[in-house]
Amino acid sequence: MKFSLQKIKREAPYEFSDTVNVDELERMDNDIREITDVKVKGEVTVKGDTLIFRYTIKGKMTLPCARTLVDVPYEFSTQAIDQFTTVEYEVREDEDIQYIDQEVLDLLPYIKENILLEVPLRVYSDEATMDNIISEGTGWDLLQEEDHEQLKAKNEEEEKEKVDPRLSSLKNYFDDKND
Q1: pTM of the model
Q2: What is the pLDDT of residue 39?
Q3: CA-based torsion, 146, 126, 28, 118: positive or negative
Q4: CA-CA distance, 28 to 39, in Å (whole number)?
Q5: What is the pLDDT of residue 129?
Q6: Do 102 and 169 fall within a single domain?
Q7: 12 and 67: one domain?
Q8: Which residue from 38, 81, 104, 166 could staple onto 59, CB 3.0 to 4.6 Å apart?
Q9: Domain count, the chain
Q10: What range defines the domain where residue 38 resides?
């Protein structure tokens, strides 16, 4: 989503609406498994040398369930305000104004950033039952509490019966003396 700064200044307030492909977010190191094209709609106002973008991002992403790891569709809608300026000395560290040194502004990185900020920490599937929970994987099994207690008792019993290999020759020491 690229904007010509001259066109924005000439037609301010400038309204825009577009559908943007952000599937690059799927390949990043985050929980987004799939994301549809997002709808971006907003307005740009000019205040001196500052361009103020106010826009809404709407879309749908697929995230893993926190309990079962099944796909959960998550619809989102977020509002964002980004400010840009063409004058370098107006940019201060304490303000959220970005400096532009070109005639064309690409809003796509800011759209992606706002989408990533919208990803929730956890989502839960409505169909999260014991039937569709992933119960085993490579090197692990999901156990019910009763099964866990039985396995724990069995392991403790085996530990008691196990003889240290360094002392295995002494295991029959007392048996030989009684004969």
Answers
A1: 0.64
A2: 93
A3: negative
A4: 21
A5: 55
A6: no
A7: yes
A8: 38
A9: 2
A10: 2-118
Residue-level pLDDT at 79: 93
Question: Integer distance in angstroms from the first to the last C-alpha of the chain?
Answer: 93
Provide the pLDDT for residue 13: 85
**How high is the pLDDT of residue 131?**
57
Task: Show the 3-state SS of the chain.
Answer: CEEEHHHHHHHCCEEEEEEECCHHHHHCCCCCCEECCEEEEEEEEEECCEEEEEEEEEEEEEEEECCCCCEEEEEEEEEEEEEEECCHHHCCCCCCEEECCCCEEECHHHHHHHHHHHCCCCECCCCCCCCCCCCEECCEECCCHHHHHHHHHHHHHHHHHCCCHHHHHHCCHHHHHHC
Whether residue 81 sits in one domain with residue 148: no
Residues 32 and 74 in one domain: yes
Judge whether 101 lies within some domain.
yes
In a domain, 66, yes or no: yes
Give the pLDDT confidence score for residue 92 in this predicted structure. 66
Per-residue pLDDT tens digits for 71-101: 888 899 999 888 888 777 666 664 777 778 7
Segments of the chain with pLDDT less than 70: 89-94, 128-137, 176-179
Q: Which amino acid is located at 39 in the chain? A: K
